[in-house]
Amino acid sequence: MVRRLGRRSIVLVGMPGAGKSSVGRRLAKRLGLPFVDADEEIERAACMSIPEIFARRGEVEFREGEKRVVARLLQSGPSVLATGGGAFMNAETRDVVARQGVSVWLRADLHTLLKRVKKRTDRPLLAQGDPAAKLAALLQQRGDTYALADVIVDSRDVVHEMVVEEVIGAVSRHVIQYPEGTRSMSAPLGPADLAHAEPEPLPIGDITRSTVRVDVAGRPYDIYIGPGLLAEAGTHVTVLRKGARVAIVTDANVVAAGHLKTVQDSLAAAGIDHTAIVVEPGEKTKGWPGLQQVVEGLISARIERRDLVLALGGGVVGDLAGFAASVLRRGVDVVQAPTTLLSQVDSSVGGKTGINSPQGKNLVGAFHQPVLVLADTAALDTLPVREVRAGYAEVVKYGLLGDRALFDTLERDFAGVIGGGPERITAVAASCMAKAAIVARDEKETGDRALLNLGHTFGHALEAGAGYSSRLLHGEGVAIGMALAFAFSARLGLCPGQDVTRVVRHLEAAGLPTKISDVPGELPDTDGLMTLIAQDKKVSRGALTFILVRGIGEAFVARDVNPDEVRAFLAEMR
Hints:
574 residues, 7-stranded mixed β-sheet
């Protein structure tokens, strides 16, 4: 896309609060282009803030200066340029943008704009009077002009990375249809043009790759999503840590699928010294013996602090290798290369690492954020369909805990996500974005990160009751747990019954279990399950904590849940 842009810049236009600066910075980083904020350039040139310029010289003089600055910036080479809210209203500026840029209107509704501008005190046009009334008037006055932009993208109240991806997709389509120099704003695109246009297909990289940024304070990192990433491991490691040795931790199933060889060949081609530690597959490996095997293997390979551990596999390998890296020499950096759907959308992101105890799941561990995540979606094609379905449960979780619109989409597209259609990459990216936003707010799970455990309290107890065996995969336990969490919420009068029915029907349509009786073989009795629930890591001073719901997309943390009500509910559900 950047090649097709040529000398043009991407020019973001829109109302105050549309997110031009925040989206623009992320967009520029994603594309490898400079980011320029026109207002900051104006302030630098005038040696005054925007409010001071308005106060001393008036809006007319400010607009003249703004016009000159925008023209100068567009002559300086391709960039991502965020303009002031009124810049695009000037006809001369629009002509310059049409010749030297691709204009993108970040369109936001009044409610979203008002919520955002309340956080800022440096908007001169909104400084006096009722901001809501002024915003509404400006939006009505400017809307038709903003609509002249080449591309329109809705700036919704979602993580910025999602808007960035939508901008990239829209601009990609525009620059393919209108190569450099073929269109100006004086000849706007009409319905007839759209009806007869036959643009060439998007380049494969533009439609099958996505990047999500996890903005953990002081340690931000990227999640690369798309096919072919394992074959590029050497390139990414070189960029990340030139000269580092790499220890690959993986399991026998991943070796059999050919993924270890792919990574080893890539590292060798890049001249990177590497070794491999292969563990047995399955949840039982995620315990003290497995941890000892990995740690001793890393020590034998002489992995030092400046080196990297690369976790190649599913959630078990990711948790085990991440925890081993966190304790080796008091902390070695880890790259997560998840090869299952479950690990790509959940366990590889957020820095939770650990092992199981005989008394419960994930009771021993540490927060140890990766420095990079390589989510190669082509690796999912080698998985048994049961594994993919189990991973899909974690995708559904993000819709159920806080994004009803995502759940609506999954109801329509779940077959493509499970079957490996283009919907899969979209689902992985949406899940990673949702988790990244929560992790950025609450890295150590002191607040709303606990919402990510929807379905896990019941699910973990069932997994432990099944002996962490192939009788019940983690995602299958989560699916049953989510169905139980919705049913228990309805029992408490919190959630409408139709939402419970809708969730259960969707999980069953995706081929997932929803009832305790769906688990093959013997399980502990109700008291035994309650004992396992009491060992859950969310328990505090003996008080039960559950993630309950008020409906689809409305999860909340419920503390000090009555054990007698849980016991009676489980007895009925068996």
